């Protein structure tokens, strides 16, 4: 199956320098076009010769897609802003440190210098059966090789699996959901703005994509409102190698606490399902409760309700339970429960 | 452009994975063309139907005003099956044409309902109904030949009136049986590939090639059903078939329609001991004009 080849399949490289031009090209070429941001996900696919687009639209020359700016009391981040720029942005660090934490834990410094925020939230699943080019559901086939008695599924989904059990690998996505970010897209019908959690879709809706972008659509910016600026943030990522790895699970939360009581909270996890999950039941359950280990314990149990482990990933259930617990009760107060 | 989608399995086999989805449109357009051609033919070109008149006035007089056609059980089966079939078609094909929703769960639940209803129907039809009434018989074949010859202007005696079901109805039943059973049998096995309440997933139940062929057969049956269901609904709505459609709701058809279309010798409904029905004389007069 997949064999790394240094020579990519031939394609036309198109390098627009404005969003308008990019949109025209994407609409002109439709499903034949591949949108390339930082190229870190794209080059894997292309060099493995698993994806063979006729046209690659390289967004790196579009200046208007870069940068962090203040907008409407919050901030707007261009989709082509690199993760390093996000991490080092004073605007992000001062007001929305949660995103800076999440982005900083993605990959390695070199990758963060090249990888973009738009690319990080739009990257494809990392299931190796899918990446190896096997004809699984996500690749348009009729089987999930990971969800079998002997399939290698240690990194796969424990929640909301539907035929495919791959997970979303983004570190910035749960932070953006916790911050109530809005994703701005240009579509053939005009500008479309969706809540961060609605940008992602599971296999039950579309088994071949992790997000709602269709051919011809372009993610241009991510807006973070001021609603959660300066809240109490928590981000934790668990991975096999701390130097550089995709998350086994991560959790991001924004919490407003008054006199030790949780006034409001948003919390999301990733690595548990094919889309980052906003834990709305947890948010509702902890409102008005003290921000302590007992509340965290209750929230953790609530978070994993309905989880179904595969052959080799049952560890993710206590892991997720404890991450949620720590996000609420704090690391100092939380005790590890296996 | 192939009719099937192919892939290379991890073992290097070139295997089919499913049908090409453009066949959805092929089937829908074919169904639509049939509808338009048939409607045009009936409206502008069809000659009045002529049947052999072999209904004796005595028999006709004993036909009840309301001729029972479908029992309550049969009607419930029909509409449950129809609801399941529509659910299956919409949940199968809407996502393929761009309407995104969580379709798999609804699909296998509807498939389960359809399977259960078909199993019931097989038992009910085999042991509690006239099993052979829906299958073409010798007279159907003879009359089909006569109708074709007369259609082309060749000399041939008029055909007999129909038994309980016209030949077209019987042929349609045969086609829907083949397509439906193909979809059901393959669908039951395909449930081993998704999480249901019935049995543990086992995607390795068959080889990749067998699975691929199963998906292909399921797909072909499914797209075939699109056209078949379109045709069925069309005939159900046609004015001259309305009495048959109403009988699937109320269970009976009128004596007039019965005598106009059906042969009491082939589909006996008269009670020999019953007295002639009300207004029978007038009806008999009308009946004799038909032939």
Basic shape of chain B: elongated
Helix content of chain A: 25-40%
User: Structural class given helices, strands, pairing of chain A?
Assistant: alpha+beta
Beta fraction of chain B: 5-15%
- What is the β-strand count of chain A? 12
Give, in spatial order, the strands making up the sheet with the most strands of chain B: 1-2
Task: Sketch the major β-sheet of chain A.
Answer: 5 strands, antiparallel
Count the domains of chain A: 3
* Helical run tally of chain A: 13
Structural class of chain B: mainly alpha
Uncertain spans of chain A, ≥5 residues at pLDDT below 50?
none
Q: Strands of the biggest beta sheet of chain A: in what spatial order?
A: 4-5-8-6-7
Gyration radius of chain A, to the nearest Å?
A: 20 Å
* Average pLDDT metric of chain A: 95
Reading the helices and strands of chain A in chain order gives EHEHEEEHHHHHHHEEHEEEEEHHH
> What is the percentage of strand-forming residues of chain A?
15-25%
Mean pLDDT of chain B: 90
Following the backbone from N to C, one meets helices and strands of chain B in this order, namely: EEHHEHHHHHHEHH
């Amino acid at each position: 199956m997949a064999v790394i080849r240094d020579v990519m399949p031939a394609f036309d490289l198109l390098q627009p320098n404005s969003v308008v031009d990019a949109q025209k090209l994407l609409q002109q070429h439709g499903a034949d076009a591949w949108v390339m941001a930082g190229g870190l996900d794209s080059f894997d696919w292309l060099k493995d010769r698993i994806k063979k687009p006729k046209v690659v639209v390289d967004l790196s020359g579009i200046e208007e897609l870069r940068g962090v700016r203040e907008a409407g009391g919050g901030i707007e981040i261009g989709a082509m802003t690199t993760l390093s720029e996000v991490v080092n942005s004073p605007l992000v660090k001062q007001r929305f440190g949660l995103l800076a934490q999440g982005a900083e834990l993605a990959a390695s410094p070199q990758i963060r210098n090249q990888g973009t925020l738009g690319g990080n939230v739009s990257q494809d699943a990392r299931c190796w059966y899918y990446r190896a080019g096997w004809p699984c559901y996500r690749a348009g086939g009729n089987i999930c090789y990971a969800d079998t008695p002997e399939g290698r599924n240690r990194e796969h989904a424990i929640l909301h699996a539907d035929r495919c059990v791959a997970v979303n690998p983004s570190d910035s996505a749960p932070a953006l959901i916790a911050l109530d970010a809005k994703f701005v897209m240009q579509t053939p019908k005009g500008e479309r703005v969706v809540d961060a959690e609605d940008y992602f879709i599971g296999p039950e809706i579309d088994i071949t994509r992790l997000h709602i972008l269709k051919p011809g659509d372009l993610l241009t910016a991510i807006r973070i409102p001021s609603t959660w600026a300066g809240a109490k943030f928590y981000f934790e990522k668990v991975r096999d190698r701390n130097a550089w790895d995709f998350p086994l699970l991560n959790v991001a939360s924004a919490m407003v606490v008054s006199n030790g009581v949780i006034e409001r909270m948003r919390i999301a996890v990733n690595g548990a399902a094919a889309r980052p999950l906003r834990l709305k039941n947890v948010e509702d359950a902890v409102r008005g409760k003290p921000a302590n280990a007992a509340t965290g314990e209750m929230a953790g149990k609530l978070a994993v309700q309905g989880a179904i482990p595969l052959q080799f990933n049952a560890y993710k259930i206590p892991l997720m339970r404890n991450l949620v617990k720590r996000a609420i009760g704090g690391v100092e107060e939380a005790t590890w429960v296996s | 452009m192939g009719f099937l989608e192919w892939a290379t399995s991890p073992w290097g086999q070139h295997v089919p994975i499913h049908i090409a989805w453009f066949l959805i449109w092929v089937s829908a357009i074919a169904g639509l063309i049939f509808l338009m051609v048939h409607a045009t033919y009936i409206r502008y070109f069809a000659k009045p139907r002529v049947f052999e008149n072999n209904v004796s006035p005595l028999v006709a007089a004993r036909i009840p005003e309301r001729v029972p056609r479908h029992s309550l059980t049969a009607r419930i089966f029909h509409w449950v099956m129809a609801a399941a079939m529509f659910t299956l078609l919409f949940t199968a094909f809407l996502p393929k044409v761009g309407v995104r929703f969580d379709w798999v769960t609804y699909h296998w639940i509807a498939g389960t309902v359809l399977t259960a209803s078909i199993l019931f129907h097989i038992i009910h039809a085999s042991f509690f109904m006239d099993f052979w009434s829906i299958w073409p018989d010798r007279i159907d074949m003879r009359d089909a030949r006569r109708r074709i010859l007369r259609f082309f202007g060749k000399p041939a005696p008029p055909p007999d009136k129909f038994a309980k079901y016209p030949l077209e109805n019987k042929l349609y039943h045969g086609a829907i049986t083949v397509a439906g059973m193909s979809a059901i049998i393959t669908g039951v096995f395909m449930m081993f590939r998704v999480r249901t309440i019935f049995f543990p997933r086992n995607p390795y139940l068959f080889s990749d090639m067998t699975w691929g062929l199963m998906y292909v057969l399921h797909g072909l049956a499914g797209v075939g059903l699109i056209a078949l269901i379109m045709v069925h609904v069309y005939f159900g709505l046609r004015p001259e078939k309305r009495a048959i459609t109403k009988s699937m709701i109320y269970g009976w058809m009128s004596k007039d329609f019965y005598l106009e279309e059906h042969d009491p010798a082939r589909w006996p409904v008269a009670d020999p001991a019953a007295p002639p029905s009300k207004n029978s004389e007038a009806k008999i007069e009308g009946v004799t004009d038909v032939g």
